[in-house]
Amino acid sequence: xxxxxxxxxxxxxxxxxxxxxxxxxxxxxxxxxxxxxxxxxxxxxxxxxxxxxxxxxxxxxxxxxxxxxxxxxxxxxxxxxxxxxxxxxxxxxxxxxxxxxxxx
Length: 104
Known about the structure:
single chain; 104 residues
């Protein structure tokens, strides 16, 4: 069995990051935009774990940063979903074009 190296994991992480960026900039649905942000954060977590394993194998800094990012992502997702639910209740849509009414 071939063990994936650092470059393999970084390639997967870069692919996840660019898929998330593409999804964020091309979608108009707030839920899919939120999922794209989660993909970006997961690619960052993958980088933390990969560098922790291959560059500094005896330290746990990457694991602690990953747990911190997961906690922040959970709080961000809960807040964003609450905002999306309130937007849907007031405008009957979760389209980004209708979200401009929140400015006033």
